[in-house]
Amino acid sequence: MALVDSFGRTHNNLRISVTDRCNIRCFYCMPEGPVQFMPRRELLTYEEIADLVRLFVTLGIDRVRLTGGEPLVRQDLPKLVEALRRIDGIRDIGLTTNGILLADQAQALRDAGLSRINISLDALDEAGFREFARRDGLEAVLRGIEAARRVGLGPIKINAVAVRGLTEKQIIPFGHFALETGAEVRFIEYMPLDAENQWERDKVLFAEEIRQILVDHFGPLAANSQQQADAPATDYTFANGQGRIGFIASVSEPFCANCNRLRLTADGKLRNCLFSLEETDLRSLLRGEGPRPEIDAAILAAIRTSVSQKKEGHEINTARFIQPLRPMHSIGG
Ligand code: SAM
Ligand code: SF4
């Protein structure tokens, strides 16, 4: 039976975080200084993730996306992809990665059955990259993008977080990048999920402002008529039909009304929203004592309860908004 919440939204999409660790330190996500990472014993094993996904599938989940932290820092990620690929009912396995370790793993991921890949990249010059990531890495990411394309993991989506004061100078270069590489470049409005609590509305570069800068430089953008209703991004191409650009306007135009996503953290907590303040501990249920059918029934009931309690939407644009304690890297973006 499908996971329909009290606002009529059906959930078929599960984002699975496999680690809270990362090899860079994007300021909008992680702290700069020492981080208290989850102890290894608290992470779901690949077998546990697959067990949970098998249960989610019986509730209508048919798409999963692996994320983190940086998913490619977890050992043998292709093994998890392979295990998920073998689960009847999973139609699509995506990966969101910063791309730094991708060049070496792209082929194995593809062979394991990965369906699609999103690569996060906020700047196209090394100094700009460092402004976001507080580490070097542009060259490695570009090699990763090229490897993904070469092994057939296209169409590739590039995610760039849109931050006022930093992103403006990247917009035209990203427009050219989209035209030259065929990758879809998606600008994501900066959301209040940073570890250092520095987010302010004034720091968000809004989708409409970016669109205008692109139009002024490249000419009109045509909306993609094939767009899926539940997709968070609004997609465009340049007037000649080339170059794909997307906008995820999570702050200025929330898409909560069409949300079909649930999130499983690396330590086995189910979150019904990126911004939720409560979570459901599936790991404790999974590791509990008792006959397997009873454990499974308890997990299924807990998932249903969580979905039934999902709120109508995030409240970023209200004075009521409370930033979740978990920053993005420990939720799974
Ligand atoms: N490490 C991988 C990566 O960067 O692609 C996967 C995890 S990351 C948390 C997933 C996505 O969330 C990335 O595209 C990242 O840019 C985005 N993200 C992280 N913090 C964000 C924030 N505060 N606002 C908007 N997007 C954010
Ligand atoms: Fe790491 Fe991704 Fe967070 Fe950047 S956004 S710090 S790459 S987890």
Helix content: 25-40%
CATH architecture: Alpha-Beta Barrel
Low-confidence segments: none
CATH fold group: TIM Barrel
Cα-atom radius of gyration: 19 Å
Principal-axes shape call: globular
List keywords for this structure.
18% strand, two-stranded antiparallel ribbon, 333 residues, binds iron/sulfur cluster, single chain, globular, binds S-adenosylmethionine, TIM Barrel, alpha/beta
Any overview of this molecule?
- The structure is a single chain.
- With 333 residues, this protein is α/β, with parallel strands linked by helices.
- The protein has a single domain, classed as Alpha-Beta Barrel (TIM Barrel).
- It is 32% helix and 18% strand.
- It contains 10 helices and 14 strands.
- The protein has helices spanning 46-58, 77-85, 102-112, 126-133, 138-150, 168-181, 207-218, 282-286, 292-308, 328-331; strands spanning 3-4, 10-11, 13-17, 63-67, 92-97, 116-120, 157-162, 184-189, 221-223, 234-238, 244-248, 261-264, 269-271, 280-281.
- The strands form 2 sheets. It has a 12-stranded mixed β-sheet with strand order 9-10-11-8-7-6-5-4-3-12-13-14.
- Strand 3 (13-17), helix 1 and strand 4 form a beta-alpha-beta unit.
- Helix 1 (46-58) runs parallel beside helix 2.
- The chain is globular and about 65 Å long.
- It starts with a strand and ends with a helix.
- The model has no long low-confidence stretch (mean pLDDT 95).
